[in-house]
Amino acid sequence: MIPNGTLTLNADPAGITQAADLLRQGLLVAFPTETVYGLGGDARNGEAVASIYAAKGRPSFNPLIAHVASIEAAQRFVTWPDQAEALAAAFWPGPLTLVLPLRPDHGISSLVTAGLNTLAVRVPAHPAARALLSEFDGPVAAPSANPSGQISPTTAAHALSGLNGRIAAVLDDGPCGVGLESTIVGLAGEPALLRPGGVALEQIDAVLDTQLHHHQPGDALNAPGQLQSHYAPDAPVRLNASTAQGDEVLLGFGPVDCDLNLSAKGDLAEAAANLFAALHSLNDTGRPIAVTQIPEHGLGAAINDRLRRAAAPRNG
Ligand code: TXA
Ligand code: MG
């Protein structure tokens, strides 16, 4: 426990300085990114990284993403093939994570990579995240700021509801704009989509001039942490519903009659931004959740990935 509870810091220069100081002391700070709030700790400090796993209750075989301020900062830690250059030029700063072979003398704690010889790196676009990374001037390991397996946080209040008293501070800068975690592309071997996310696969394919394997229901787990049940509310979730049954609350998309609509005008980016907040608020009703069908193209692939995991049988 943190003696005086978790501090809430404003994302102003004083708050950023204080957050960076806490990271330097090996403490944990939740901070906004354009995707979701991250739970940050110094990626070179094994004790700090161990406390990230402890605060989330996360299995230690599930590696973390190192957040850095720039392409040059990423290149200090990982090898840099042409495909990394092309994708980083197109999407960084932004909601894309690249998994690349570690360089010698990288200095990253082996707890970040869960002992793998690759590292997931990302340059976030959110101004507060960028300010924090440049003030801290080092790699920040950050999973999403929620207890392992639960709904991801897109506000400081979501982060606090799961982690209050377990972390030193949360830097509050309002809701996240993208609302879904980053797309993860593996570039350690043949390019592969490891997790659909905030950059649509079609956009990645266009830059790489290829067709990466599309993530489909029932695929084998392809990123170590891609557990079948994840993003899970307390209540059961039923997909592809047309109407609510029994006590269900209906989460809709497009012009449908429902309790809560992700995007009445059928805009997938708007739906992505609203998804986790909608799940948090429906979860608070204590009622089972039904969701209408959402198209599988563009950001719909990542939205459906999260919903399938929210609906999957729970681990234990
Ligand atoms: O948008 C995001 O990516 C957010 C924000 C905070 O940046 N972070 C996030 O982290 O979603 P997390 O820990 O919830 O998900 C990271 C994913 C996990 O599925 C993990 O298994 C995968 O990245 N991962 C990390 N390192 C990896 C590696 N070396 N090889 C393959 N997958 C890796
Ligand atoms: Mg997560």
From TrEMBL:
Name of this chain's protein: Threonylcarbamoyl-AMP synthase
Positions of ATP binding: R58, N62, T118, S144, S152, R195, Y231
Coiled-coil segments on the chain, per record: none
GO biological process, one term: regulation of translational fidelity
Sequence intervals crossing the membrane: none
Natural source organism: Ruegeria atlantica
Chief location: cytoplasm
Keyword Transmembrane helix: no
Taxonomic lineage of the native organism: Bacteria, Pseudomonadati, Pseudomonadota, Alphaproteobacteria, Rhodobacterales
Binding residues for L-threonine: T35, H67, R122, A142, S182
PROSITE patterns: YRDC (PS51163)
PANTHER family: SUA5 (PTHR17490), THREONYLCARBAMOYL-AMP SYNTHASE (PTHR17490:SF16)
